[in-house]
Amino acid sequence: MRLRFRFIVVMLFMIGFIIIFNGLYTVIETTEDYSVHKQREQQGTIYLTPNRAINDAGTTTSPAGLAVNYSQRIVYNRVPKCGSRSVLTLFKIMAVTNKFRVIEPAMNYPYQLGRNEQKRISDFMSALRTPFLYHRHMHYFDFKTFGGPSVAYINLIRDPVSRSVSHFYFRRYGDNLLNKTRVKNKIKNRDMTYDECVLKKETECVGNWGIFFIVPFFCGHLKECRSPKRWALNQAKKNVEKYLVVGILEEYDDFIKVLEKLLPNFFQGAYKQSKTPDPYMPPKSVLSLTRKKQKPSEKIIAMSKENMKLEYEFYDFIKERFHKLKRSLDIQ
Is residue 18 part of a domain? Predict the structure, then answer.
């Protein structure tokens, strides 16, 4: 009888433990000093750092008029082929130095999410202990729509034609970090050049996905955001005002300087670190350089710019806004 009673107690304890374990997003922590420690979760990878004291009342106001809480959640909804892997390499180093977490999902697609998936991510943001930086290839959405927390959005974009060309060859050949041979074999006309793709009016280069790629990341998740129309552009511009900063890859150094000034508890020392060579690794720009990329002809560049009028209007809008922010921060 006693044995059966003990067995029942043990089973109830185990069931309770499993329920609690599955109901929470758990993170393994240690008080030891360590560099980057990884834990594989269903959500993806968490780059952990030791605990530190956080002053939740410590706030400042950015020149964009946004309140920055130093324990705030940072969301980087990165646009493909806009320098994000170089940025993330730096962020992961700073996470160790400044003691925050970089959280990445198991998957970076789809870019457009249904409401249920948006709600899931919003709940995920609420459950995580701050401070952290979450990144993913996904379109913008407001977490407060789903009862989620306040977050500070950041992003980085680049010249639209330059991005499109890089993406075109990356899908075929990868870069010095990722060899895309498996993907290459599935791509139609995989040996085609970007020039040929544009001249033959292939959907990959002149369809909506080819000429209207950056704007949707800021427009949102409605179907209309994927269509190269004035409405989508205006909605993207409206949403950008909710970002702490959107930089341009062509001024990468200044983007890092802006982050360092606006979010010092995350990025203090980031610019100096970005200029510090790693003796054990080639420069990040070499590692993430797209392989076999061919520069398009001037004719094709002109044709593509004409096709991407809305993308360039958005790019110029971001550039002007970024320059205004730099001036307000006295970044020359």
Answer: no
Span 86-102, average pLDDT: 96
The 3-state DSSP composition of the chain as helix, strand, coil percent (nearest 5) reads 50, 15, 40
Specify the pLDDT at position 19: 36
Classify residue 24: in a domain, yes or no: no
Are 172 and 180 in contact by the 8 Å Cβ rule? The answer is: yes
Residue 272 and residue 260: Cα distance in Å, rounded? 10
Mean pLDDT of the region 296-311? 98
The domain spanning residue 135 has which CATH number? 3.40.50.300
Task: Convert the pLDDT of each residue in 55-77 to its tens digit.
Answer: 333 344 555 555 455 558 999 99
Task: Please compute the mean of the pLDDT values over residues 223-235 and round it to a whole number.
Answer: 98
Largest pairwise CA distance in the chain = 88
- Considering the candidates 37, 137, 139, 221, report the single residue annotated as catalytic: 137
Known catalytic membership, residue 221: no
Side chain identity, residue 198? V
Q: What is the pTM of this model?
A: 0.79
Rounded Cα gap, residues 208 and 227, in angstroms: 7
Residue 4 placed within a domain: no
Q: What are the tens digits of pLDDT across the range 279-296?
A: 555 555 544 455 567 899
Taking phi over 0 as left and psi of -120 to 50 as alpha, with beta for the rest, 331 belongs to beta
Which domain, by its residues, includes 177?
70-329
- What span, in angstroms and rounded, lies between the C-alpha atoms of 86 and 287? 9
- Give 216's contacts (C-beta < 8 A, 6+ positions apart): 111, 112, 139, 225, 226, 232, 236
Domain count, the chain: 1
